[in-house]
Amino acid sequence: MHQKLEAAAALAQAHETPWPRDPAAAPAPGQQPWGVHHDDPPPYNRLFGPVHARGPQSGVVWQHGRERFAWGEPERADLTFSVAKTYLALLAGVAEAQGLLPDLDRPVHRQLPGIGFDDSAHNRAVTWAQLLTQTSEWEGSCFGLPDTVDRWRKVAQDPRAAGGPKGGARPLQSPGSYWEYNDVRINQLALALLHLFRAPLPAVFLDQMLHAAGGGAGFAWRGYDDAWIDLPGVGRVQSVPGGSHWGGGVSISARDQARIGQCMLELQRGRRSGPIRASWIDAMAEPSPVAPFYGRLVWLNRGGRNFPGASERAMMMLGAGGHTVWVDPVLDAVVVLRWLDAASAPAVIRQIAAALQDG
């Protein structure tokens, strides 16, 4: 196994993401601009929150609860982009276990009036379940960013054909009937969870997930510069985004990402008690009827087509810039890949899968 993992790590390190390591640096020949915000229509093609320099291509491989291999800088806390979406799903699982989310099919506005879900008949129909599967079709602006900026967005893992130009005026569908990868709607979910917990989401995640898993060093979850609200009875609190599309987001080490994935496996198999029910982890991995390649803010591999080499029960957390957290209950494994060129990710996953099958 060691030799196969060593070869997979060498392949990954030879194909680091083409982004500069410094977000402020101009791309060198053969590189791409840092981030994804520059693809948005103006005036939204800029950063709204802080970012920081990154480390090298890195990774860790765990199986049967033990670290089998690591490379690069696995202790470095780096931005992880849309992997943070799955962290929102885990926070929703904490809320469900605490009795704060008794009914996912309940319209959000009935529980949380006055935060953008009761301003139209369309938005009043939006449920928690739809927000967690990216099928809400919520319409509006969240901290200066309109949902329209991410309409018609096409991401590499979406098997459907592109429908129109990003940011175009795609007609809205009824909530629950259409899947779209939309970061503004994810940020609206984060705002709703902040109101639900009545506490900063970074503190809840650190206490309920990371500290419980034995990690947390260097962890940060930052919001946009103007994403502050006055929460009645609590005070001034920053709402955080579910990624780093426009800056901010989660900074975390590869090993802490592996700890979170391992916690998910152990909760799912009943090997530990924790802040989330096993049934919630199972539900995260259930295909959405509208988008069977997607669950509750995780990418799925049913049929083995999306991520060849991984099992059909694998859950994938993905982030721009080359971030993958692969949680595989069949292989009893967690794999974290950071700053890997997306074009090389399938080959690296296949090589790691072949090594894990020996274990």
UniProtKB/TrEMBL annotation:
Protein name per Swiss-Prot or TrEMBL: Serine hydrolase
UniProtKB keywords: Hydrolase
Species this chain originates from: Pseudaquabacterium terrae
Composition-biased stretches (Low complexity): 1-35
Residue stretches making up the Beta-lactamase-related domain: 80-337
SUPFAM superfamilies associated with the record: beta-lactamase/transpeptidase-like
Molecular function terms, GO-annotated: hydrolase activity
Entry coiled-coil feature ranges: none
PANTHER family reported in the protein's UniProt record: BETA-LACTAMASE-RELATED, BETA-LACTAMASE-RELATED DOMAIN-CONTAINING PROTEIN
InterPro entries on file: Beta-lactam-related, Beta-lactam/transpept-like, Diverse_Enzym_Activities
Pfam families: Beta-lactamase
Location of region: Disordered: 1-43
